[in-house]
Batch of 4 targets.
Target 1
Amino acid sequence: MIEIALPVTIGLVTLAVILNVYRLIRGPHAPDRVLALDTLYINAIALIVLLGIVLSTRLYLEAALLIAVMGFVSTVALAKYLKRGSVIE
């Protein structure tokens, strides 16, 4: 069953990444682009975790955790920049 579920899941997450890139490029406003970037890194984490499951290794899970931390920090920094015009006060 997992042999069928993994390729289908990878395909659907890849489709979500493509749609996120479209919203990132065509977003009418800056907050839309920030949300698209936030969703894009979450989908990238999902793809990395799925690749780790396919290859049966834990190394990719550590990379996914690193991307999650960096993505969170970048989202907060972009939100502060859009709200105040600077990141550091």
Target 2
Amino acid sequence: MANVQYYDVILKPVVTEKSMELMADKKYTFLVHTEATKNQVKEAVEKMFAGTKVASVHTMNLNGKNKRRGATTGKTAKTKKAIVQLTADSAEIEIFEGL
């Protein structure tokens, strides 16, 4: 496994209708590095967003989709998604506040 630092773990937030509904329960969805573990995701969220305390992390691996352009076929890159549950006394993550 590669040496993944905490600032390389979280790639970007996932902004969908379902992820916005989960924010009411203090669940936040991120695209993460494909080799990141649950412990690394937990550490990254707690270090990057001050005042947050992670209760649990659920991860899922997403395979690339088959794409076609003319006669040429290929696949998009594999991704990994993490849903982070914060504790009740934890601070909110502020990048989602204006959405």
Target 3
Amino acid sequence: MPQGYLERPDFGPSLDFIWDAFWILSSDRSLGMSEGPIPFASIDRFAQRYGLDDLASFDEFSALIRGLDREYLKIRADQAEREREAGNKDKPV
């Protein structure tokens, strides 16, 4: 099991829902040359499924998911860059 998962912070019940939703929604992102953001339609469908149907609840949910997604994508881009740099060190000039 990844160390980061084992060291998962205790958010409490309200933010646990957001954390779990983020990881569920992450499987909906497009994959091409790199990972794309979680689509709005996926966030909207998830919110509807779980009863976040008033605008204020949806806006808060969406903002939290998108904030997590931005940070996740930054981390993944940094990882990819480090991997590219490490790969270039191994290639002969």
Target 4
Amino acid sequence: MRKRARNGNALVEFALVIVFLVPILFGVFSIGMSLTLSVQAAVVARDAGAMFMRYVDFSVPANQALIVRIARGMGMTETGGNGVVILSQIMKVGAAQCVPPYADTTACPNFNRHVIIKRIVIGNSALTTSSIGTPGPSIITADGSIGQSDYLADSSARADAFDSLMSLGDGEFAYVSEAYFITPQLDMPGVRTGTFVYQRSVF
């Protein structure tokens, strides 16, 4: 009788403990998988940025497919899916860059600022926006470039958030690659939802 009573106690204790152990186990799995996907996102950002810096034309669908191939398994397509890669070319506007009709630096709206002179978005653009700035769609051409008059005068071309990353010299360039992927497969309803991974590379 005493043995059967002890067996019952063990069952009750196990039931009480398992309520806490199961969420912890799922949490450990979710966070571990997030780290794995974060490493893959870093590879995507690094490789995309390295090619972008070397003037690979990512406005061409065949070249966009290269990025999708690198992001294999993360649910990304060239124009949709669970991921987006945002490529930006940044320039610091100095006096030499302020050309007519903005040759007078006092009349050059974006003088002494970092501006985005090229922007390419691959994947699902509805997922997120760039952390360094979002040029107005009307000033971005088919190949992703932004005209001189636009990046000198249009306030939407400014990349003020880039100031916290580094400071370029007048006329110098930087290339920024951002990779963002949502991970709904790792969500834990009521505990951990809206999960995603984000990585950025600067060249």
